[in-house]
Amino acid sequence: MQVAPVPPNEAARLAALRRLLVLDTPAEEEFDRLTHLAARIFDVPICLISLVDSDRQFIKSAVGLHVREAPRSTGFCPHAVAANASLVVEDACVDPRFADNPMVLGAPHIRFYAGAIISSREGLSLGSLCVIDRRARTFSEVDRSNLEALASVVSSTLERRLQAIRLGESQQRLAIQNDALRLLASDAALDEVLRRLVQGLESMLEGITCALLLLAPGSLTIERAIGPSLRPQLLEEQIGLDLTNHPGTCGAAALSRAVQVCSDYAADPRHATIADLLLDLGYASGWSLPIEGRNGELLAIYSCMYRTKSAPNPHDIALARQFANLVRMAIERRLHEQELLAARDQALQAATMKSQFLANMSHEIRTPMNAVIGMNGLLLDTDLDEYQRDCADTVKQSAESLLTIINDILDFSKIEAGRLDFESIDLDPHSIINDVADILQGQIREKRLGFEVEIDPEIPHSLRGDPGRIRQILLNLIGNGIKFTESGSISVRAFRIDSDERGTTVRFEVEDTGVGISPEALPRLFNSFTQADASTTRKFGGTGLGLAISRQLVALMGGEIGAESQPGRGSTFWFTLPLLPGSGSETRPQVEAIAAPAIEPRRYRVLVAEDNPVNQKVTQSQIERLGYRVDVVANGLEVVEALGRIRYDIILMDCRMPDMDGFEATRAIRRSEGAGRHVPIIALTASTLPQELHRCSDAGMDDYLIKPAKLEDLQRALTRHLKPGSEPDWQPFEPGRCLPSLGVASPDADTSQPVDWTQLDQLVGIQDARHTEFARGLFETFLRDAPVRMAQAAVALDLGRAPEFALAMHTLKSASSNVGAVRFSRMAAQHEAAAQSGDLNGVRRSWPDLARELDLVKKAIRDEARKAA
Predict the structure, then answer these.
(1) According to the model, what pLDDT value does residue 495 have?
(2) Is residue 575 within 8 Å of residue 618, measured between CB atoms?
(3) Distance, CA of 847 to CA of 222 (rounded, Å)
(4) CB within 8 A of 517, min separation 6: which ones?
(5) Contacts (Cβ under 8 Å, ≥6 apart) of 515
(6) Strands 69-71 and 222-226
(7) Is the pTM of this model over 0.70?
(8) How many CB atoms lie within 10 A of CB 576?
(9) For 416-446, what is each residue's pLDDT tens digit?
(10) How many CB atoms lie under 10 A from the CB of residue 620?
């Protein structure tokens, strides 16, 4: 018997074969169809797809034989591989290469063989598609050509199969990594993030059990061990172990800083002392991967074990390195955060001590200063000669200057300590400016300066804000202008730069013709204890706190401040402030269909619990548009925590959220409430099923809205539970009563286009809402979030995890409806319902349609964004 020679490119050929990840895999329908087709075309009893490994033939598909592998030494296929060409043996009994072959003399009694080469994309021979008969026969050139064409199909099918595997792995890895990064960005504990990464690597590598050994800083001692699939006792035994003297791949990897592989624990001397333990636990082989920090310090060891004698391929190690990078990022980020927190705490403690000291000292100095000013005033009311009066006047001016400095220090310390309070009351910008002008008229006349006031008549006379702080800023800026101007004039101007139903933004300007400021000094002008230069302080006095206080006051009121100047020609200081509509505001809402509520919204504080970023933006915008103060959290745990800090008047609660859902959060709130307190909770749900609404009622919710809710529906729900003049009253809702809503199946929605823009108009309450800044942010969030949700759904679908797939569809359903993608929203709802019923096969058939529809939605949104731009 003649054994086929080994090809000269054997190493490259075997590498190409193993790259395809096809060896030792079960039968697959695509390959079985090809072997059956070849058997029918050539009318043979036996047909094989045979792949030649180092010492065997792996049979991927077979007709007429029930074998999974055969020796390489007795095979016909290795001869074709060695020649890198098709092989035809019309009668093996007379062919000297095969006449005494045991497969000819015995079963399966091969007389005729024809095999065409299966090639890799590099052109390397991997095996053959062969047809076999138990009788001798001829094989024409047409037959040879047809067989080679079928073998080419097998080759391309192997490559497509690998691409599908890689795509599935990529999607699964992306979902795992996104989950880990989301946890990393949250306040999740480091061990939870690392546990997910260990489980993620296990799910990506078949037949593997993983553990993560975290080392104490600066040593090779195991500080913590994380292995969700291992017995806790085994993990506890690892803690405190010094890898310097520890046998096995973990210690070797720690010392060498390289991957260490053991294909047989029983035969490897490195595991002599622990082989019995590993074998008792059912592990036969394994490998370890060291994880180093950016500074070269060893952070952890990935330990991977198999229950059979095996070894990782390069793909396995490359995948593990990707997960190791995430482990390193998680560990280093948490270490960095701990350092930052420690530094922040020290800085906060120092700042607090400084602010408390300044506040205490300011108060202590103010008390005797008030006595000095008061007694000096009484002294000036007595009969004094000219010299005595001059001395008393000097004392008065000095005391008032010193009191101004003390007041500045007190304000500054209050701001730094976060103890400065702001009012929100009715004010008239016209009157504030005129009042300040009246106060400073004496100083202006004394320096014989010109003074002009210009106020935009479009600024409403009734707005809402803190008039005292606005007056303080204007007094500071105009006072500085007077102080630094020897001749010329001071001009004060106010303009309306923006106005809508939420209020008016006003720009204030103070222009002088004084000494001016150099370009080098402008950037640091608003810093604490800073003036333009030292000569300014010597000539004009002051602490340099006035502008710093003004900057912080403007920032705390939501505005901006700045300055423009030319040395020797004067300066212009400006600031902008957003002011709310006053009780007598002349502004009108943009949408007349939304009537003004009968309550005062700003009296109430609303908490929104919603995990989807698109839905968060929509609901927050709607509530702010209605005039309420609103905070947003992402899950039920954050709701309970927020209620412990702030007394909210009403809660809008999404039912489905991670960590703690809306039902559980509501029950926790109701358990903690006393007899005299009941915060109304309105459910936000995308389901209209009676059982879902009964769950809301049973959990203790007071009302519900079907997502996405129109603005008028939201307003009615809030006003129904927030009664003016008293604590909000409430009655448990009846699940049969449902508020009108767009929902995902709105009958008036336009489904002829990917996006129905009128849906967004109705949600936000603004005509052509897609052209607003809010809509642009909403679209950006949707375009960023939707592909991630689709990838998560695809992974869940591939793995057959119906609950995870349904949850992803539920999120996409409401988010897409909020941007007007009604058609896609309905399709997502259908996919959700199918997954909930367990019909994943139907979902797989319609999945491409859903993906294409999302592409249409994204294109429509981007096209509209380009039009708006």
Answers:
(1) 92
(2) no
(3) 46
(4) 525, 532, 563, 565, 567, 571
(5) 484, 485, 486, 536, 567, 568
(6) unpaired
(7) no
(8) 19
(9) 666 666 778 888 898 888 878 877 777 888 8
(10) 18
Q: Among 330, 327, 317, 292, which Cα is nearest to 208's?
A: 317
Task: Judge contact between 796 and 808, C-beta under 8 A.
Answer: yes
How far, in Å, CA of 457 to CA of 632, rounded?
38
What is the Cα–Cα distance from 660 to 485, expressed in whole angstroms? 63
d(CA 304, CA 211): 7
Rounded Cα distance between 762 and 819, Å, is 11
Q: In what order do the strands lie in the sheet with 681-685?
A: 629-633, 605-609, 650-654, 681-685, 703-706
What are the helix (H) ranges across 98-241?
102-105, 141-185, 190-204, 232-238
Tokens of 562: 């700045």
Structure token pair of residue 299: 């952070």
What per-residue string of b and e applies to 409-443 under the rule 16 or more CB within 10 Å gives b?
bbbbbbbbeeebeeeeebbbbbebbeebbeebeee
Give the residue from 814, 772, 779 showing the smallest Cα distance to 625. Answer: 772
Q: For residues 514 and 492, give the distance between their C-alpha atoms in angstroms, rounded to a whole number.
A: 14
What does R_g of the chain's alpha carbons equal in angstroms? 39
Tokens of 522: 């402008």
**Are the C-beta atoms of 594 and 715 separated by less than 8 Å?**
yes
Residue 336 exposure: Cα atoms within 13 Å on the Cβ side = 9
Tell me: the pLDDT tens digits for 550-606?
888 899 899 999 999 888 889 999 999 999 998 764 433 333 333 434 566 767 889
245-249, 351-355, 541-545, 604-608, range with the lowest pLDDT: 541-545
Between residues 175 and 388, which one has the greater pLDDT?
388
Contact call for residues 488 and 512 (beta carbons, < 8 A)? yes
In 546-658 the beta strands, taken as DSSP E runs, fall at 560-566, 570-581, 605-609, 629-633, 650-654
Is 60 exceeded by the pLDDT of residue 733? no
- Report residue 99 as tokens: 């006449």
Contacts of 514 (CB under 8 A, 6+ apart): 481, 484, 485, 486, 488, 570, 571
Say how far apart CA 666 and CA 847 lie, in whole Å.
Answer: 35
Q: Model confidence over 288-307: pLDDT tens digits? A: 999 998 888 899 998 888 88
